[in-house]
Design brief:
Helix 1 crosses helix 5. The chain folds into two domains: 162 residues, DHBP synthase; 80 residues, 3-Layer(aba) Sandwich (Rossmann fold), CATH 3.40.50. The protein is α/β, with parallel strands linked by helices. The two termini are 27 Å apart. Bound molecules: threonylcarbamoyladenylate (TXA) and magnesium ion (MG). Threonylcarbamoyladenylate binds next to strand 6, strand 7 and strand 11. Its EC number is 2.7.7.87.
Amino acid sequence: MTEAIRILPTTDAAIDEAAALLRAGRLVAFPTETVYGLGGDATDDRAVAAIFAAKGRPSFNPLISHIPDVARARELALFTPLAEKLAAAFWPGPLTMVLKRQPDCPVSHLACAGLETIALRVPAHPVAKRLLEATGRPVVAPSANPSGRVSPTTAKHVAEGLAGRLALVLDGGPCAIGLESTVVDATGERAVLLRPGGVTLEALEQVAGPVITSESDPDAPTSPGQLASHYAPALPVRLNATDVKPGEALLAFGPALPGAAVTLNLSETGNLEEAAANLFALLRALDRPGLAGIAVMRVPEAGLGLAINDRLRRAAAPR
Ligand code: TXA
Ligand code: MG
């Protein structure tokens, strides 16, 4: 049985309706420049609980609160000098900062998984910004997919995974970046990279100086809920392929290896931005019954390649 799902183009009327639904405690999926988010009122424990339920997400994994500007962010969290610098450089955009909650922060403790910190992001997508303005409250939004599966970069992807579990999807077309935001702990003097994403490590370091990563410091924390297996297609995924085995589909990068049952290319010219934007949609497209698995060619570990490889490693991790 396929459940009906309402998908609306992003007219002013649709955005206002979505905002009203959010204020009434309902869930709405909306586009951001990274991936589609499954939004709920961050100050409403029941809406937050409904998000965890809709995704089948372990509740110890905290959510990002989205706000339309840095002034609204300062009302929710204590800004360090580092946070001010990062906000000035990367907001609006694909950066999430983890900061200490303000003592009177109205965001649900469930959204923060009981932590004294909160993750904040000001998205750059005009529809997300308008929706946040119209809602007038912080909106928590994890990627709009069942927990552990491939993240959605179109409204159709959202419908495939979550039909029947939300009131409305705002269709803003495909996401420009295609990978989730970079998550940085900005509570201290030095930035700690918790999840690679749309802002590259190189760009962060230009603004914030040396960043602590799990590479530079094996004891460095990562985001709670950075579960090993994630973003997982149903088929097994084999990384750094230098050949194609019988029956395998190929996810190519640059000139494709020969011999695959089906080949899709992240970027024929080896462009990492193009590859990031294509990653989740192509993983979905190759995830078809009757194939032996998905072989993935090597993607360089630089720039957006860090985030792409992070997602690919999780897609390939033992389930
Ligand atoms: O691009 C994105 O960030 C998308 C769009 C919709 O904004 N959202 C997204 O949300 O990817 P989600 O829930 O899939 O990822 C949130 C990440 C998780 O890795 C979580 O552990 C981390 O942020 N996080 C949230 N709150 C945190 C906190 N207080 N401390 C450390 N990590 C936190
Ligand atoms: Mg996600």
